[in-house]
Amino acid sequence: MDTKKKKMSVPLRINLLFFFVFLLFSLLIVRLGVVQIVYGNNYKREIERTVDVTVSHPVPRGKMFDRTGKIIVNNTPKNAIIFINEGFDQDKMMTIAKRLAALIEMKDEKIPERDKKDYWIINNPKKTDKKITAKEWKLYKNKKLTDKQIYQLKLKRITDKEISELTKEDLEILAIYRKFNSGYAFTPQIVKNENVTDEEIARVNENLESLPGVDTITDWDRSYTFGDTLKSVLGKITTSEEGLPKEQLDYYLSRGYNRNDRVGKSYLEMQYEDVLLGQKQKVKNIIDKNGNLLKSEIITEGKPGNDLVLTIDMNLQMAVEKIIVEELLKAKSLPRTGLLDRAFVVLMDPNTGDVLTMAGKVLARDEKTGKRIIQDYALGNISSSYNVGSSVKGATVLTGYKTGAIHPWSTFYDSPLYIKDTPEKSSWRNFNAYLNDIRALRVSSNVYMFKTAIEIGKGIYIPNQPLILKNKEAFRTIRDSFSEFGLGVRTGIDLPKEQIGYKGPETTSGFLLDLVIGQYDTYTPMQLAQYVSTIANGGYRIKPHLVKEIRQPSTNGELGQLVTEIHPAILNRLDLKDGWLHQVKEGFRQVMQHSEGTAYRRFGDAPYSPAGKTGTAQAFYDGPQRKNYKLPPEVMNLSLVAYAPHNNPEIAMAVVVPWAYQGNSGHTANYEIGRRVLDTYFELKKQRLKQ
User: What is the mean pLDDT of the chain?
Assistant: First the structure.
């Protein structure tokens, strides 16, 4: 009996369980039906009324170090007050601006009259409305006048007297309001980041609840450890007021920049913008259709920009700049140097293209005091070009070899050339002797180079007759050959706006002779450095570069992990036969180490076995005082290219001193600068080896 009852109770329990499950599912289905049918549209509208807005917050830029790890460009923190427009209307922003103006002091700035009128209208609505006549209001009501037309009438009728009634406090409020209004919704806008005191920061922080959208942050400014040294090459960044450059606005906006972001606007800062920028912090703001902020979420944490390690040796750079200034001032005290005002030096590793020093200085006058000042012009090494004279004769001899015009040990008799309707063409002194290629370089014979050019041009020289060149491609042939050394073309340095120099437009025979002695086309000091490096390293034209490494952000002054190392880039190799380059290098060695060499007097006792070529060019002045002359005055440009040691070069140098003096003779600042610079390089190397 008990067994039978048990059998009957089991199905009953199962049925009760199924019934209970059925009820739960029924309730769930009813609930889903209510949600979908009754509240479905409400939930749909709730989803549709929210919008995701992603905002990028800037991070500090990467730093710059020299090759030994010294900080050159850093970020100095400073107080800043920002505003994020969380969908506020005009009246709300004006209210916030008035509250903020009571807490901080805004600097005086030029506020357009239109903005002052707009401010007057916002704060005097009743008075403004009275400026519209009843007839005009009727036309407006009948839609004969638009809102815009009514507003224009109001603006037109605000008087100068009414504008002049704006107080200092009004102008401060207006200055803040303009900052608020210049930004985009949910994009940080700098309100004030100059001279923000700790007291102002404290007052604002204490009142943040009544200042929606306002916040305080730590902003930064670029600081330069070595003052103006190399500053023209390091480049500049835009201010928060400038924001993105107008000419590149679309480019930067397409890459996720905000309009008020600070970016590199010149030279290294601009060239390596992608490296220095860093990774912005990305924040997702969820707002409703009315523009009200519902919540914010951090999508991506920010990361400071990567650092640049430059090839520059700042100890060497500063020492070279000091030498330039001292020698410039010394030469300036001599007669006939009224137009002398600048000098340049480039030091480069001829085997890697590392630019160790890129120095340039200009003597100028302070406009206010009239006193002499010295300005950095390192940039002039790539942005200005000059006739450099005989320094290019190494390229001339090698071009002669390549074209078959001359061969190693070829000789020419050095005596003046007399070409009809052309001034006498002669060397700097009349040798009246047969010179081979090596001695021609050693004594800097112009006539040897002239006769080489005549052979390249397949010309026939007859005294006092016109010089006719059968090879009409002679100019192009020589210039193409020179370009293989880096003369007359961009060197490829990692800086924007590099100049290539000036190519003379005339192609008559006389100018061809000027071309081969460096007195026709113009070249930059950086081109000279690349040219002499190509000879020094065995015929490889290597791209000069200022950035050695890219590293992750530094911490506590220590360099971060290596990201990218810049390796030497060979642009081309000279197509030369065995022995050709040896001839020129021997000629360069004798320039400085043979008693007949043009630079022997200054370099003959140098312990580091230098080689090089001197240059003096007759040129026409085209500097800042040109406006004072009807015709450009004739001047002498001085130059010097060198490398050392001659048998295993580790350093290459170019020195240019434009407009050095007027007349046939003067100082030798190129020699003085060059000798002191090379001495300094090897002395610094010795000191570091001891350390």
Answer: 89
Give the separation between CA 334 and CA 354, rounded to whole angstroms.
36
DSSP character at residue 35? I
User: Which candidate, 167, 187, 58, 188, places its Cα nearest to that of 116?
Assistant: 167
CA-based end-to-end distance of the chain: 109
| CA distance readout (Å), 398 to 116, 394, 405, 463, 572 | 70, 6, 10, 27, 15
Q: How many CB atoms lie within 10 A of CB 211?
A: 19
User: Model confidence over 186-211: pLDDT tens digits?
Assistant: 778 888 888 899 999 999 999 988 89
Res 180: pLDDT: 85
* Whether residue 390 lies in the annotated active site: yes
- Whether the predicted model's global pTM rises above the 0.85 cut: no
> For 456-507, what is each residue's pLDDT tens digit?
999 999 999 999 999 999 999 999 999 999 999 999 999 999 999 999 999 8
Burial class (CB in 10 A: 0-12, 13-18, 19+), 528: buried
> How do the domains of the chain map onto residue ranges?
46-81+218-310+554-568, 88-184, 315-539+574-690
Q: How many residues does the chain have?
A: 691
pLDDT in tens, 327-365: 999 999 999 999 999 999 999 999 999 999 999 999 998
CA distance 431 to 451: 15
Tell me the one-letter amino acid at 350.
P
User: What does residue 297 show for φ and ψ, rounded to 5 degrees?
Assistant: -135, 135
Closest CA to 355 of 504, 518, 528, 519: 528
- What pLDDT score does 38 carry? 56
Q: What is the DSSP letter of 555?
A: B
Neighbours of 170 (CB within 10 A): 16
Phi then psi for residue 366, to 5 deg, are -70, 125
Please list, in sequence order, all residues whose beta carbon lies within 8 angstroms of the beta carbon of residue 292, skipping any fewer than 6 positions away: 86, 87
The beta-strand segments (E) located in 450-512 are 459-460, 468-469
DSSP class of 627: G
Catalytic residue among 240, 384, 385, 390: 390
What is the CATH topology of the domain spanning 46-81+218-310+554-568?
A: Penicillin-binding protein 2a (Domain 2) (3.90.1310)
DSSP, collapsed to helix, strand or coil, labels residue 87 as coil
User: What is the Cα–Cα distance from 143 to 148, expressed in whole angstroms?
Assistant: 12
pLDDT of residue 404: 97
Burial class (CB in 10 A: 0-12, 13-18, 19+), 95: middle
Cα–Cα distance between 457 and 452 in angstroms, integer?
Answer: 9
- Three-state DSSP at 686 gives helix
Write the burial class of residue 29 (CB in 10 Å: 0-12 exposed, 13-18 middle, 19+ buried): exposed
Domain 315-539+574-690 architecture:
3-Layer(aba) Sandwich (3.40)
Dist. CA 223–CA 60, nearest whole Å: 12
- CATH fold, domain 88-184, is Arc Repressor Mutant, subunit A (1.10.10)
Sign of CA dihedral 432, 437, 443, 446: positive
Pairing relationship of beta strands 307-310 and 64-65 according to DSSP bridges? parallel
Q: Please check whether residue 615 is in contact with residue 303, taking contact to mean a CB–CB distance below 8 angstroms.
A: no
3-state secondary structure of 410: coil
Residue 149 DSSP SS3: helix
pLDDT at 286 over 90: no
| Rg from Cα positions in the chain | 37
Tokens of 513: 């002779």
Share of the chain above pLDDT 70, in %: 90
The amino acid at residue 407 is: H
